[in-house]
TrEMBL record, chains A, B, C:
It is a multi-pass membrane protein. GO terms for biological process: copper ion import. Residues 61-73 have a biased composition (Low complexity). GO terms for cellular component: endosome; plasma membrane. Belongs to the STEAP family. It comes from the Eukaryota. The chain crosses the membrane at residues 174-192, 218-243, 264-282, 322-348, 360-378, 393-416. Keywords: Membrane, Transmembrane, Transmembrane helix. This is Metalloreductase STEAP4-like. Residues 221-356 form the Ferric oxidoreductase domain. Residues 56-86 are annotated as: Disordered. GO terms for molecular function: cupric reductase (NADH) activity; ferric-chelate reductase (NADPH) activity.
């Protein structure tokens, strides 16, 4: 077996527990002294270590038995540790090395993320390489040292493999931008409608509302819109397929990108719903609310003395069902969030996953929308609702969800559904030619 | 190396990132043109694609080096993609193909769930096959294409492997049925006791209570019963083992099935407890509650003028400890739920898992039961509690938990515990014969 | 291929589903009758089974093709099932067996945790062994039987591998001790300051507060301190590195141990914060609170008749921002907790993980500390705050967080930050010699 040097650094403690393992590595001439000295390094570094390339002459006997390319050039084991700056990564180190010394053979690239190791107690090692021989040997060694090896295919994958630890939430950018801009818009819109209006027209200072009351209006609004935006592309895609009469054509890029960030949108929506719920629970303990309550009682006492005073039954019904819908909606929301956990979602079969994300998802959207409509109730009749001729926030936030639900309802119509199902099972209005071609050359 | 065609379809974007990987596939004569054309398909389909079987002549040189069966028949790579209806799956496709063309060799079955891929960014590929050669080659290829291969053993596993994506929560059925039926029963029971009773006897309309108040009575009741049902089979099993004097005999099927769905029962119980908690938090903001409070104050004002009026210390103690128990119980509930997450539970050692699920579980049950008892307190003395001679809901819900706790207490008795431990360590009241037989032939 | 006996026990149902798999095992002479009989055992045992060692003569033909050691001694497949008591595990069984019969060859150790299997539907099998031949064969067999094999390297790992299921939260001990002692201290401290003080000085019995009010003071205090303790070692380490001028020296052991239990500390802090939040939500429904409210109203009525009576705007602002900060803090708290889930944290790249745990973590700490300061507000001016000349709890709990935040602020100073970054990128104030040595021999 040829000599592969794996530059794995371990902490002293690790070394203690893995002593025998490491001893059993001797026959693979890993220089243990090096290993121990480096181990000290890792012990006291907070970030991944510096890149290091080591090379060792293979024994003449082994060079024959090594991987596909029988060249007797020097094998180089690469341990990339990704502390390069974002800007200095035009090429992967592996490819750069091969470029510098064309004759050389790089059997494997090990990507050790030492930071994660310190904090999550997992040392995942991404391994890629061309010579299966080398990979097998290194994987074995890593296993013995207690590292988990994830094979990432050939050396050509070295680039992304080495860049992986440098990326920062690439797929969260778009959803976050949408969420932030929506929040900002509604926040200022409501500040103007409530606080400024109250100050200008009725000349009273209710600026304290900004902290909690307004937040508790903005969060649910944005949350509901974000949730609707999760399910809007699905509807658009369905009608696009109906219009084209085939599923074998790509969607426009914007739709594709949108679809790929539905999960993140949903999670952000869940987070906002969570905030909305907490705000609601805090409400009764707030000073202003208690003050209003007391004022109410005192007025009650002075104006009408008829106790027990009037109990509005419809009011009770309306508010309670408003709450019930909200609670149920939030419950389903959380359920959706849980199934989007990698470990939970990964254990679901496709049908289960589809059931939850599509059926339960639309049900959640429906319930939350109903929650919003009941909140509005008959306010939209009163002229006092339209301060400065602007519609209240909850009206604006109900537009998108309603559209999504209408689209979904249309898709569920038997006639539409039948066609769509057939299309999605591969039927096309006009059979493409290469299909036939493929069939014949069988 | 023989020619295995893997019908993996990838999205354009994937192709871009994996370009070099795919180039490096050339020497395994995967027809790249095909691959790219199909990739367009996957890009615009919402559901797994149609089944497809491709076959390629192996090179004469390779047929010898291929797996166990040295037959020179045509190898067929199967990519099953599970969009068959639930009804048309009498046989696995792999076996069907082998049945159609008996001479043929099916080296592997790849099960690609493309839908999951689109949404969870994992493309898990279930691989099973008879020829190790083929499996190794395909696994390598898949890795290069960025798929994660899960080896599922021999081709005989193709059946379940292809059916997996079609199953819909098989192990959740029983617990859900129990939960739904219990909820329905208690709901109607309480509707009759509260609303109907109030309407008939006292002739007042409190139907608004159905939405929130009743829900907040039904959920905790069902939740507590479900939690108790999680731990009842354990107790039954213990006594069954004590009675039989051995652990080496199967439990009756009903008990076995019951035991296998304890996890789901617990999770449903947690869900209901969660709903109960949210309902409780919403209470003070409800119209009816505020109305009652105001009425109380107004009455207070008119009847006795002595302020500060009487503060009932025992009342405060009782209610606070009632709340404290509820909070602690819910906290442990959530803890139990967290450890039942695959990723969390999977990282626990057996002893930790046993500690949490058994010890913490029974503690939770105990606390929640105490929560229920304090709620009842001395109400059971008043005749007014038994409307129409029916016991209130909380009494009914305390039966099962009490039984479970009594069983657990019995098992914890030193004498019983000792015997049980010995039995569970393999001791039997009457040693079976094959044991001795096994010992001798060592 | 030699004969490896794998003592895997399966449940009847498993056998039914895996029938063909097991049939396909025949050619590896696993004694199926044994397998079936044992399966009955597993079906009715609640705990891992007894240890069992079986041995089978290898066929002469295979002994040559078997792993590295070409000895024709008897191969023994070990299935350790960890029901040994904690005290009787001086050696691993594998090593013990090898010690008893020195000539013998133990090709593999299978560690089946049957309990987990019953409840989480995963049968993880830890496999370790010296002969790659044996391991491959066993791994294949296990896969066919539906077990997931985790290769744990050479036989020398058998010890820890067999002990794993016996350990009980080793890394949670220290954090839990800290949490419990802090909770106990603050509980008694507050009991004395509130209840005892009230009883002795003002001679009124407010003991009922112990249940909820005090808990709701103790939990946030301890939670905040624990959170601060998560980020304190980071600061200490930074200054230690600055002082030493190199990152290539180990930290003292106490700091190392502290750093390794940061995750657990954070999770405990989250748990306490969760309890604090629930307690807060329960507040308005409490008897004592409602009583106080009513008293307030009644007083209001009798003393000043001017309605609407005075609305304190700063009070509203202060309290609302206090709540807003608390809510935001808890939200970030939960976010941190979620990313520490193995499945979530495992899917993060290093940069993302670092961003969340370091940046978001310090932000959370800052917000929660601000929450505490606003709670205190100007109370510290009133002499009535210092009952019996003792500072209130919230003052004590603000010390550690403030220190941590100051440290962090110092580290963020440009001059300090620059030096630290250079040090962490490997720069040292005095270059060690072996570095040069390493460079030259390249």
């Amino acid at each position: 077996m040829p000599a592969y040097v794996m530059c794995v650094r371990l902490r002293e403690s690790e070394l203690k527990t893995n002593r025998e393992n490491i001893d059993s590595l001797r026959d693979r001439n890993v220089i243990l002294t090096e290993l121990c000295r480096w181990s000290l390094r890792l012990a006291c570094c907070r970030r991944p270590l510096v890149q290091s390339v080591k090379c060792v002459q293979p024994e003449p006997s082994s060079s024959g038995s090594s991987g596909s390319s029988g060249s007797s050039s020097t094998p180089i084991g690469l341990l990339s540790e990704d502390n390069r700056s974002r800007h200095s990564r035009s090429h992967s180190t592996a490819l750069r090395v091969m470029h510098i010394q064309p004759g050389i053979r790089v059997p494997f690239v090990l990507n050790v993320n030492t930071e994660r190791y310190r904090q999550l107690w997992v040392l995942e090692v991404y391994l890629c390489g061309n010579s299966a021989e080398a990979k097998r040997a290194v994987a074995e060694m890593s296993t013995k040292l207690g590292l988990t090896v994830l094979d990432k295919g050939s050396l050509s994958a070295a680039g992304e493999l080495e860049d992986f630890p440098l990326q920062l939430f690439p797929e969260w950018r778009l959803p976050l931008r949408v969420a932030v801009s929506l929040t900002a818009f509604f926040f200022f819109y409501l500040v103007i409608r409530d606080v400024v209006y109250g100050y200008v027209e009725q000349d009273k200072d209710i600026s304290y509302r900004i902290m909690v009351s307004l937040a508790n209006k903005v969060f649910p609004i944005v949350s509901l819109i974000m949730l609707a935006l999760c399910y809007l592309p699905g509807g658009i895609a369905a009608f696009l397929q109906l219009y084209r009469g085939t599923k074998y054509r790509r969607f426009p890029d914007w739709l594709d990108r949108w679809m790929l960030c539905r999960k993140q949108m949903g999670l952000i929506a869940l987070g906002l719903a969570f905030l909305h719920v907490i705000h609601t629970f805090m409400t009764p303990t707030r000073y202003s609310v208690r003050h209003k309550l007391i004022t109410l009682v005192v007025d009650e006492m002075e104006n009408n003395k008829t106790t027990p005073f009037y109990f509005d039954n419809t009011e009770a019904w309306g508010q309670d069902s408003f709450y019930a819908l909200g609670i149920l909606g939030f419950f389903l929301y959380v359920l959706l969030g849980l199934t989007s956990l990698p470990s939970v979602g990964g254990s679901l079969s496709w049908r289960e996953f589809n059931f939850i994300q599509s059926k339960l998802g639309h049900l959640t959207l429906f319930i939350c929308t109903a929650h919003g409509y009941i909140y509005g109730w008959n306010k939209f009749l009163r002229p006092s609702t339209y301060k400065w001729y602007t519609p209240p926030g909850y009206m604006l936030c109900l537009i998108v969800p309603s559209v999504v639900l209408v689209l979904k309802a249309l898709v569920l119509l038997p006639c539409v559904d039948r066609t769509l199902t057939r299309i999605r099972q591969g039927w096309e209005r006009n059979q493409p030619t290469e299909e036939i071609g493929k069939v014949t050359n069988l």
